[in-house]
Design goal:
Elements (H helix, E strand, L loop, with lengths): L1 H6 L22 H17 L14 H4 L13
């Protein structure tokens, strides 16, 4: 999957892990922070890596589900 994404971008030699574009969004309210956090947590599900966000080992969604993660997480919301 990473190799295929890298082939579509002339700036890569082999693979691409991160998206090249970004759109900054000011998180000026708690509601917007929680909304964006949910979006981030759902990304591994949408990509087909896991069935539920908290199953993705590298996600803070584990901490929000009271499951141990790899890092200590400061919960918001």
């Amino acid at each position: 999957m990473f190799e295929r994404a890298g082939q579509r971008n002339a700036h890569n030699e082999q693979c691409q892990f991160w998206q090249q574009d970004n759109h900054t969004i000011e998180l000026r309210s708690n509601q917007l922070q929680v909304q964006r956090l949910g979006y981030l947590h759902r990304n591994p599900v949408v990509a087909g890596f896991v069935d539920v966000p908290e199953d993705f080992l590298y996600s803070s969604a584990r901490s929000y589900a009271d499951r141990p993660g790899l890092l200590d997480v400061l919960l918001i919301g």
